[in-house]
UniProtKB/TrEMBL annotation:
Domain of life assignment: Bacteria
DNA-binding found in the keyword field: no
Keyword list, A-Z: Cytoplasm, Iron, Metal-binding
Main location: cytoplasm
Protein species of origin: Chryseobacterium suipulveris
Name of the protein: DUF2249 domain-containing protein
């Protein structure tokens, strides 16, 4: 039985670590593997290998800290390494209108580099093309397989690396148009006439349960949908470009802690505060309703959550400072630019999220709590 080669990564000069590992991986025949040993978790290498080579390998921890991390990396057998076949076909007509674009985005984000899927629709889904371009950047190809008049089928593929093939690149005019539409606030998605929320944006007129649910559905869900991929992207870009741009190491570290704190924060809101607010509303509507909290005490948890908002704002301000206001350097690669655009997008959504809570939800909840205490 052949012995697998083992690389002690700690003995390799830092700037040569990943190139050396890539060289060993590329020399593997399908089905072969090797082992790397390191003194810290080499997970950034996983993201880089996935971005540069696609889903053609397996990654298995043989030992996972705290002192040593040992990973077996294997190149998939040839018959398992094919990523060109579409993963699935999505019949968009069968999806509720308000969920059409979010569902397609979810499928796209789940693709590994080099993978694809097909959407099948009863009209030209070109608005989706511009939304995908505005939100994800030039990291995909869009190919019509059938173009009307009754059915439109499109093959959507995630680019296998940062280097685009000339025949698969997105036209510059489309990139500019997508960014222009986004800046102007154009809604790309299908109409959502069945929304459960009030049409007016005077949030003072919304009921507390409507406001809480809206924050969870729109802003909490945005964090949940984007946190993991944003953290992974920050690590990947740091590993790729940290030597020339050392601030990226700080960006990756700060992003990780910022996102973890934010996930803990929204969990506290969903599991503790928001249910209590709804209990208070139910009691206000019907006095004999039972509550599981001490009426008149909401000011304490709300002060804590408001402080969390201040800390999140400071974290974002720090990220802005070290990224030159989320401005990538000239000739930055797609992943570098995409990271900064996602951080900026994350900031914009969080500012709206925090405003809804600080200016509307929290004051209304405190007023309700005071009224119940005085009843």
């Amino acid at each position: 039985m052949a012995t697998m080669e083992t690389l002690d990564v700690t003995k390799i000069e830092p700037r040569l670590k990943h190139p050396t590992i890539f060289k060993h991986f590329d020399a593997l025949n399908p089905g072969e593997s090797f082992v790397i040993e390191n003194d810290h978790d080499p997970k950034p290498l996983y993201y880089e290998l996935l971005a540069e080579r696609g889903n053609i390998f397996t990654w298995e921890y043989l030992e996972k800290g705290p002192e040593w991390y040992i990973v077996q990396i294997a190149k998939n057998p040839a018959e398992e390494a094919k990523t060109n076949e579409p993963k699935e076909t999505i019949d968009v007509t069968a999806i509720e209108p308000k969920f059409k674009h979010p569902t397609i985005f979810k499928h796209f984000d789940a693709l590994n580099p080099g993978e694809s899927f097909i959407i099948d629709n009863d009209h030209d889904p070109k608005p989706l093309y511009y939304e995908l371009l505005a939100e994800r950047g030039n990291i995909f190809t869009w190919e019509y397989l059938e173009q009307g008049p009754e059915r439109f089928k499109v093959l959507i593929s995630k680019n296998p690396s940062e280097i685009k093939k000339e025949n698969g690149s997105i036209p510059e005019k489309d990139l500019k148009k997508a960014e222009f539409l986004k800046e102007k606030g154009v809604k790309f998605g299908c109409s959502d006439s069945g929304s459960k929320y009030p049409e007016n944006t005077n949030y003072d007129e919304w009921e507390l349960d409507e406001l809480a649910d809206y924050i969870v559905d729109k802003h909490h869900q945005y964090i949940k949908d984007n946190a993991e991929s944003l953290n992974g992207l920050a690590i990947k870009v740091s590993e790729h470009h940290g030597t020339d741009h050392p601030e990226l190491h700080r960006v990756a570290t700060q992003t990780h802690h910022f996102l973890q704190d934010l996930l803990d924060h929204i969990a506290n809101e969903e599991e503790v505060l928001f249910p209590v607010i709804k209990q208070g509303l139910a009691k206000k509507r019907k006095s004999d309703e039972k509550v599981t909290y001490e009426i008149g005490t909401l000011d304490h948890p709300i002060r804590i959550l408001t402080k969390d908002h201040e800390i999140a704002g400071e974290d974002l301000n720090f990220l802005r400072r070290i990224t030159n206001n989320f401005t990538p350097p000239k000739n930055a690669c797609n992943s570098f630019s995409y990271l900064y655009s996602k951080l900026k997008e994350f900031e914009e959504d969080l500012h709206t999220h925090i405003r809804l809570e600080n200016d509307y939800l929290f004051p209304k909840a405190l007023k309700q709590d005071e009224e119940l205490a005085n009843a």
